[in-house]
Amino acid sequence: MIPPVDLTEQFKQIQAEVNAAVTQVLAAGQYINGPIVQSFTEAFGQYVGTDHCIVCNSGTDALYLALRALNIGPGDEVITSPFTFIATAEVISAVGATPVFVDIDPDTFNIDITRIAAAITPRTRAIIPVHLFGHPVDMGPILDLASRHQLAVVEDCAQATGAQWQGKSVGSLSHVGCFSFFPTKNLGGCGDGGAITTNDPALADTMTMLREHGSRVRYHHEAIGVNSRLDSVQAAILAIKLRYLDQWNQQRAAVAQRYDALLSDVEGVVRPQAPNFGQSVWNQYTLRIVGSTADGQERNHIQQKMREAGVICMVYYPIPLHLQPVYESLGYKPGDLPQAEAASHQVLSLPMFPELDAARQDTVVATLKQVLSEVGVKAAQYC
């Protein structure tokens, strides 16, 4: 069985270092905050290239704390992509604001930067671009637009730690960058975790305060905050993994390049496109099954047949956010955001992790070719 990601192989590479670091944390008896958390916080901020870094409990909390610090709330609108994990929009709703969804670019799966301006209203307060699947969004036009309209920009970097736009790390390009350390991310812990990066000292101070139950001084609370801390064991593990991150991202890029070559003559699929203005870190290698119809039936059948043959592929995401039941009240209808809807019916993510060797890649692609032949999916326009 070839899984979508295999964390056991990564652990074998760093097992001795992790065991020693975790044992040291446990022996010290300081499991929340402390020097190891501070050391990792500083190292991650330096890696991203920002003046300030705040670690927290999850990527979802990172986004939530960013919006809280920006004073976004009821009556406000925040523009984002409908083709992402629910957390991106969920935090907008959690602070009382309204998500406004803008369709995606069919080639990159990222928000279509040419459509953002039309979605801006007097209530718009921020834009959350999502660097999906490890591919950086073209941030220049977004930053220019935000500057003209005095909007905040919060980067959702959950799937893109280490990605770059014009030589600069994602998470350093806007008001706030938000990262996830969920185990399957490029920099993943052994549990939940997240980080927020910024060059704004006032925002950093506010987010730190909100993370600590709304407190700057112990037992003195000036706001309704949350408990969102990264524990010392996770920080110790992440500090080790951070040293390997660039190497692992290069291995992911090599896996993607080899997939490209193996799939170059395969009819019925469209390979993912890396941006020409930045560097992707390939959190996923996501194809389009271009013959799949509007209900995704063919794609789903292919996924099931692949699983039966021992290759587990994933679908990110089968329902775009604007059509999720939780957002029915926003009034979106099928057909409103056609590119996101088409992608949801067609995408299929092949196994992708740094240690995926050539033999298993060959098996993945050979299996896909065989299943496509059996199913009879043919090339078609995907937009």
Report on this structure:
The chain is an alpha/beta fold. The chain folds into two domains: 233 residues, Aspartate Aminotransferase, domain 2, CATH 3.40.640; 130 residues, Alpha-Beta Complex (Aspartate Aminotransferase, domain 1), CATH 3.90.1150. Helices cover 39% and strands 14% of the residues. The strands form four sheets. A seven-stranded mixed β-sheet has the order 1-9-8-5-4-2-3, sandwiched between helices. Strand 4, helix 6 and strand 5 form a beta-alpha-beta unit. Helix 1 runs antiparallel to helix 8, helix 3 packs across helix 7 and helix 8 packs across helix 11. It is globular. The C terminus is likely disordered.
Number of strands: 15
Indicate the CATH topology of the largest domain: Aspartate Aminotransferase, domain 2
Integer-rounded radius of gyration:
21 Å
What share of the residues does DSSP label as strand, in percent? 5-15%
Shape: globular
Element order, helices and strands? HHEHEHEHEHEEEEEHEEHEEEHHEH
The total count of helices amounts to 11
CATH superfamily of the largest domain: Type I PLP-dependent aspartate aminotransferase-like (Major domain)
Mean pLDDT: 96
Structural domain count: 2
Kindly, what is the distance between the CA atoms of the first and last residues, rounded to a whole number of angstroms? 33 Å
Strand order in space, largest sheet = 1-9-8-5-4-2-3
Most strands sheet: 7 strands, mixed
Brief summary:
Helices cover 39% and strands 14% of the residues.
